[in-house]
Amino acid sequence: MRDEFPEDVKRSVAARAGFRCSNLSCRAPTSGPQTSPEKSLNVGVAAHITAASPGGPRYNPAISSLERRGAENAIWLCQTCGKLVDNDPAQYTEATLRGWKADAEARAGFEVGKPAGLDLKGAGGEVIRLPVGARVQLRPTIPRGAEQDLYDVGRVGPNFIELFKESNQQTVEIPASGVGIVHRNAQRFIIVLQGRMQWVTPKQRWEFFPEGVPDGDDYYLGLWKPAAMNEPRVLELQALRNTAYCWTRADRIARFLGQGWHVIYDADGRYFRVPDRDADLIFMSQHP
Known about the structure:
Helix content: 10-25%
Number of helices: 6
Strand content: 25-35%
Structural class: alpha+beta
Distance between the termini: 51 Å
Radius of gyration: 24 Å
Number of strands: 18
């Protein structure tokens, strides 16, 4: 016998996800109007995270029947994604679905009461609507290796866009004057900034800077400023970290980054560089 969800659980799970698919790469709306003004349609399903009966995908014999049909065991998905996760439970594990559920509810909570979108200029001069909740990539982002990071559009206004970064639960505000060209593909929007998004080490957050970054490999790590190994600001940053730090030759940066080290960026979005005879030295730390 299957442990099906009661109607009140289905309604609650759908509302907590904002009536959108909880799959991070989908987020399709699941409700809308029918032709009749008195009716609506629904293409969403309350899917079981662990199966409703033995032999089903991700079945967990350790939980009770009551838990199996409770809201904690339900995730709201569109019908396509609901079928997808049950057809391949090896890829779409219980941990994966619980992560989707938590992220979807966090985004839905963040979007409540926010404006619907903002009109921006596309690469061909067309108007592109950037909706609240859209997935966004930013370019340029410093360090440049972070340009694959994804943000969600949280709030929009006549003079700003506020983006939400899931990985650190922080928001980043970009002035409307800092938005250049917008590209759109099937998965996300790509915003080419009139400036740059920069990691600021002392503040431990991303910030927008109107100053752009020149092209070329020399600027992969962003803009730098001359420094001395014993100058007060460098010594202050060293004291903030209970971890290893070092001055690294510029031609060895790639190896150190691959080993988990991080370039230290100051509050102005620049990193410290000491001229040396063979290769300049760059200040790095094992702390992000």
